[in-house]
Amino acid sequence: MKNKNYPLYKVDHVNNLKELINHNAIKYGDKPAFTFELKNEVISISYRKFNSDVNALGTEFDFIGIKNAKIAVIGENSYEWILTYFAAVNSGNVIVPLDRELPAESIRNLINDSGAEVFVYSETYSDIAEYLQKNDAMIKHYFNMKDFPEMINRGEMIIRSGELTVVDYKVDNHALAAILYTSGTTGIAKGVMLSHKNLISNVIAGCKACFFTDVSLFVLPLHHSFAFTGGILIMLHSGCNIVINKSLKNVSEDLKKYKPSNTLLVPLFIETFYKKVWDNAKKSGKAELLKKLIKISNALLKIGIDIRGKLFKTVLTAFGGNIDVIITGGAPIDFKYIKGFRNFGIKILNGYGITECSPVVSVNRNNYYRDGSIGQVFSSCKVKIINSDENGHGEIYVMGDIVMLGYYNNEQATKEAFDGEWFKTGDIGYLDDDGFLFITGRKKNIIILNNGKNVYPEELEHVILNKIPYIKETVIYAEDNIIIAEMFLDTENEPECASRLSSDISKVNQELPQYMTIGKTLIRDSEFPKTTTKKIKRQYKNGGNVNA
Length: 548
Prior knowledge:
Strand order of the largest sheet: 2-1-10-9-11-12-13-14-15
Radius of gyration: 24 Å
Strand content: 15-25%
CATH superfamily of the largest domain: ANL, N-terminal domain
CATH architecture of the largest domain: 3-Layer(aba) Sandwich
Number of domains: 3
Largest sheet: 9 strands, mixed
Number of strands: 27
Helix content: 25-40%
CATH topology of the largest domain: Rossmann fold
CATH class of the largest domain: Alpha Beta
């Protein structure tokens, strides 16, 4: 199909996460919902078995006396983590996913802030449980995931005895289901409150926009909102077999072993994979041949002939041979990687989201995308651009069923985040005539020069990284009305690059409007500090030496 607009996909409607699991158990039955490895054995859990396990664990929680409670969960990616989430929200409790990379003290603070009384953890994080017990955490119940088989068995026995409180529980679609703590690049983490309605609206809209099937490889951390909604909830409603990758070291191996048709990745993964393709081509002496094949393939595509599967079989085999779509979000991605993978026959569909919107707001579709954009706005919400400048760039506001209930125990922050019913994302962008959304920066990062001109740091950073390949990371800011580019260079592969930097920046400046030109550069000795979701903490600067 050509890259043109087409109707949304038809999707079975469900009203909450409990209906989602019940519906899928009936529709997909014994089809695998999850596949994972345990002690070198490959285990598959069917949609019917998953529904049964959710009911059993939820019943065990209820029998113990866990009702209307907040349940915190931490651990590596696992079936048990996912089971905890659904057992909690589908029995009237609230899930509080925790970032496993946070230090113990930060975890304790988030638990106390959320009011969580239950702590579920994997064996790997038993030291965190011990820390919480010794340091006055509010937790009343601790559960190690290794005990789940026994807990599920007890829950099943209770259900067989006729106790169906959890099985028959009627979910309030507007009730609080999850508290997700933001890990923003600046500021203190806030607890985003999402309801069943928020989450399921995002799922339905996602399935209407994009089509997924067969095997999906799940790689990103489960506590991340983009990962869980996109990689678990949407894939479940699509009837996929979700393969759970437990270690990033095994991603390439899992791609080859399970041959997925789709996966979700942050841009860093995509960039790394792409560079590896070309590094391997150079090492084998086939880089020039690969370039020629791309030219031939693109010429054939213009006349409707697609033989990329044959021409680039070696490249595609490294990804399992069946990969068709990679959804990416969480950070900007350079167009060259999207175009590069498309040349091989793999679609990189860039999307945009924010935790407060459950989290996806827009996405490029399987066969309708616009390069440089973050896709079309979801059917479950509306977007408008506020206070736009002469170029139509302004703050992105979102309204609709996907927008959060508010920030937990933080009325002031909630009030500041809304303009009536519209949520203020803080992101700067614009909509084109076909409804594609574009991001140009963050409102709080805008540089306002004394001549009244606005400079969007992210936009300028994108230009620099695209024009000068040996710059691995850069952050733009201003001091005394001078635009400064602080950067970390790839001196490992290009030892002499620092000596060329001044000249290369001058070339970039020649292509920029005068008010955007870089007046000073700083070279860092190390990478920029990052959040646990690998975003640069923009408040960190002045960490390098003046270069120009």
